Every structure is written in structure tokens, then in C-alpha cells.
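User: Can you help me understand a structure? I only have the sequence.
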Amino acid sequence: MVMRSRSILLAIISLVFVSMFVVDSSWEVEHRIEISARKSTIWTLLSELENYSQWNRYSPSVEGELAVGEVVWVEAHLDNEIQRVQNIVLTVEPEQELCWQSADWYGSMARGTRCRNLYPQGQGTTLLVHHEIMEGPLAWLIELIYRERIERGIKLVDESLAQRAELITTGGSGGFTEHEKDKK
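Assistant: Let's start by predicting it. Here is the structure, written out as C-alpha cells:
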């Protein structure tokens, strides 16, 4: 009986393990926020990676070059866990869209594509649509472990971005020095 139970358990584990590599899965997260700032202000904040620490509470360190095909390293704070993720820049359309995709060693197993799109709403406001899709055989596992934290993180970065952009729009420096503010 014990031998039969072990065989069944081993078969189930093998089936799950094999299905992880054969069955592709995906899931998506999206957050929208209307920001009382022009696209140009929001784009400046998104595109100046060296200043992320001044406003981005989810990913305070982002390093690299924002050019299609270039590598960008993102430090994501998932509650009390910090992940440093290598990404490849997919699109850079000034004041419209910024996308990158995870490119770490596990990319063939689970890869996340994150896009930020800006849409003018009139009277100096902009709709930010922040969308992430996780795909690959192990996407379901990432969803199980990280989905809630990723959703909270995306909301946090969007709210941080809105707060900083609105502060700049109303004349506050938003943490920038006077010299940096003059460049904007």
C-alpha cells in the first residue's frame, strides 16, 4: 500500500512538473490613474531613471539606458523582499509609451512585460495606464507568490508618480533642486 501511494504521489508530482514546462500560462494586472499634470511632466519623471529615488517608492533604483533593446535594471520592493530584475527596453515613445520586459535567466519560464501609457484628458490632466502581463510556463507560480504584491506595487508607483507630477505642476520642486527644476 505504501509503495502504491508513493507511486501515485510521484506520478502527480511528475505530471505537475512536466506541465510547468509544457503549458504556457499568463495573467495581467492593470492600474489606471488620472494625474493633474501634463504628459510632458509625467514623461520627464518616467524617463529620467536617475531621479526615481526621489519619487518612486516601489522601485527607487532603476539603472540603464532608455533605448529600445537596452538593458534596464529595476530594484522592486515587494513588501520586505527586494528583487533586482534585469529588463530589456521594448518601446520608448516620448510622452506616449514606455515598455520593458524581464530578461533574467528565468525569462523562458516566466517573463513580465510592463508598459506605461499616457493619454491626455484635457485641461492639463493625463490618464496613466500601467499594464503588466506575466507569461510563460511558470507564470502561474509568480501569480501565486507575487500577484498581490505586484498589484500593490504598481498602485504605489502610480500614486507616487501622480503625487510628484502634481507637486511639480503646482510649482513645488517635488524634491528636485532648483537647477534640475530649471531643466524641466
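Now, to help you interpret it: Helices lie at 2-22, 39-47, 139-169, 178-183. The two ends are 74 Å apart (CA to CA). Let me know which part you'd like to focus on.
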